Amino acid sequence: MRLFLLLGAGLILSGCATVDSVEPEKPELAEHFIEATSPSTNHSVSEDSWWLAFDDEKLNTLIQLALKNNYSLKISYARLQQSQAQWEKAGSAQLPDLNLNFQHSQQWQDSSSNSASTGGQYQAGLNASYELDFWGRVAALDEQALQQYYATESAVSIQTNTVVSNVALSWFGWVKETQQLQLLHHQQQRIQNALTVVQGRYLRGTVIASDIWQQEQLLESLNSDIIIAETRQDVYRQQLGVWLGKSKLDEELIALPDHYYQIPEILQATEQVSSLALQQRPDVLQAYAQLQAASAGLQVAETNRYPRFTLSASYSSLATSPEQILSNWAASFIAGLTMPLFDGGNLAAEVKRNEAVVSEQLANYQQVLLLAMQEIEEALLNERQQLSLQTSVQYQLQLANQTQNFQSQRYLRGIGDFLSLLKSQQDVLSLERQTLGAEFSQLQYRIQLLTTLSHGRFTSVDEKESEHE
Fold first, then answer.
1. Domains by residue range for the chain, with CATH
2. Where in or outside the cell is it found (predicted)?
3. Distance set, CA 96 to CA 8, 129, 312, 441 (Å)
């Protein structure tokens, strides 16, 4: 009874050990951040899967395939499983060790009287040991492993954000280049029609041969642009294959539903974001977890200099037959104390090293937080400025079309020169492509902004279904 009382008291006292966390100072938020009024860590897929806002079923399918098949994500999840096992291993020290042993020995003796004798023994035992965690060393080891697990979990979220954003960028890049090819073929047809007109005027002797050559050169330049667009389209297809974990993509997977399929149009820039998004960024959470792991490591180093108390108990039995093994028991209880006396300053140096690690991780957390704020502000600025640029390009295109129509009418009436018409044609062709490029850049900046605000905790449809089964 006394033994159980001592063990129980030791468990209660050691269970009171706690690990203090380090709370760094919060920097002052910029004006673009809105203070969160009701922070919550529970998120549904419909609320946080930012790509759903584009209302693109093809993109939704591609992202779900990437979340399921991407090899870099599989690597990250394998590392997370390793970290979880390390945490479970560290936590096991908070519970007593209990071992059961059983053995049988047989002896033979040959006497001088030529009569042999034999004898056998059966031995069984139950051993238990436990470290009383008065100083919180074991709890600190568990906390350190837990925070390292959180850091690895955040690394998974970082990789998930990378995969999702690159799938979105590659898919919309594919769509944009498809639009580009459609535009180039349309431009090609227009210039071909213009060339026919110039050739007719040449046959009537109203223009010179160089007008035809310059128009043909403009037409051929469109062929070069088509080759470039086709190359970029193939590159986007290859990138999609990598992010989806496939060496070759099925054509049906990336085939556009119809001829008029276009990239989403962004009409308004984002002005402000919630500060909660900053706090939930995976790189910020990772830096915070690394700081807490370093703090727990410092506590481990400090408590290693203190005495270590252990309790051990054993029950054993020795008998000549299995039937008697329960009738002859012996019990023992040992309370042990281990204390470092002289180590040449090794433990003190380890404490200093861990103090430096805490300082390093504290500075790293502050730096990551500042970089995260700057990245979000840069994304907001890029989106706002690109929207202004897009408006400017569209207005330039409007003016260029007016100029081209004017020069075309003058040329057909024989009062305008061909170089002015050719220049206006080149301006319209270039600005039409710039308009599409500006729309795509606007979409890229929106995806960049959404990625910088994303927590990255996404799961595939198959994984969510398995969780509910």
1. 44-94+136-308+363-462 (1.20.1600.10)
2. Cell outer membrane
3. 11, 6, 9, 60
